[in-house]
Every structure is written in structure tokens, then in C-alpha cells.
Amino acid sequence: MRWERVLLIPIILVIVLSLTNHGVSAQAQPNQYYGENGGEISGYVLSVSGPVDWAAIYANNGQNRYEAFSGMSGFYEMRVPAAEYNVTVVVQGYEALASNATVLNGSTTNVNFNLNSVTVAVSGGSSTVINFYLQQNQTPVPEFQPSLSLALISSMFAALVVLRRSFRDRE
Fold it and tell me: Same domain for 86 and 127?
């Protein structure tokens, strides 16, 4: 009975450490601008089939990156400080497009995007083509988390030890 207690302590420590080091963390929020000076970048994200909703639009001036999303009508709008921007739109299934824009204090700069869909033909199970497609569209790819499997195995082992102990106490 004593070895079970001694074995249970390291198992619990492994579980706690593996969950705290690689647990779910919050995503960084998009950079927003609420200053008095500055202007707006706005426009529409469209495709051949009509407006594109939930398109991610990024405005980068070399120091900060601002983000907005298009609505159901394809319209987006973001307030930014006055500067020169590289404005990029990214939507899964479409080619990423970029445009330059100058924003002046108190002005609205229109940047519209007409997206072209991406067609991927996979022949012979080519993973290279799929990986290129995912990188071009900045699609996140889930990766294997070794710490998660370690936590799962450790917790299953701990549960077995506890069950064995409870059955032994009943006898």
C-alpha cells in the first residue's frame, strides 16, 4: 500500500507540470487605435460570387499592425493613426491580396479588394501541394502536442492506481 502513495505523488506532479507548461493560452487581441488623431481605412471585400464575410484585413505601418474583419456585406472599417500602410486581406480559400494606403488625420481611405478563389488539385496524395496551400492562405494547422499525450497517459495511470487501491480496500 505504501508504494502506491509514493507512486501517486510523482504522477500528480507530472500531470500538473505538463498541463501548466503547455495549457491553453489566450490569443493576443488585435491592436486597436483609439487616439484623437488619425483616420480610417474602409472598403469592401468581394469575390465573383459576391461579398466575402469574415475576411481578415490587416493594416501594417512597420511599427504596428491593426486588424478588422468584414461583415456580411463585405464591408470593413478600422481606425488607425495617420501613416503609410500596407493593407492585406486574408480569407481561407482565396488568394491573399495587398494594397498600399496613405491615411491622413481626419480622412477616410477606401481600399477595396476583389478576391480570386484558389483551386487546389491534389494528385497522388501530394502533401507538398496541401502544405503550400495552407501556408499561402495562412490557415493554422493543428500540431501534435506531446505534453497532452503525457498528461493523458499519466492521468489514466493515476486512475488505475486509485481504482486498484479502492478495490484492494474493499477486500
Answer: yes
**pLDDT, tens digit, for every residue of 46-87?**
999 999 999 999 999 999 999 999 999 999 999 999 999 999
| Phi–psi pair at 110, nearest 5 degrees | -90, 130
Are residues 80 and 123 part of one domain?
yes
Nearest to 33 by CA among 67, 71, 70: 67
- Would you say residue 49 lies in a domain? yes
Structural domain range at position 129? 39-136
Domain count, the chain: 2
Task: For residue 161, give the amino acid letter.
Answer: V
> Please, what sign has the CA dihedral across residues 20, 24, 30, 35?
negative
- Strand pairing category for 39-47 and 113-114: parallel
State the pLDDT confidence band at 158, using cuts at 50, 70 and 90. confident
CATH of the domain at 72: 2.60.40.1120
Q: Residue 49: what residue type?
A: S
More confident residue, 89 or 22: 89
Please write the tens of the pLDDT for every residue from 128-142: 555 555 555 555 555
**Pairing between β-strand 39-47 and β-strand 83-90 as defined by DSSP bridges:** unpaired
Same domain, yes or no, for 66 and 16?
A: no
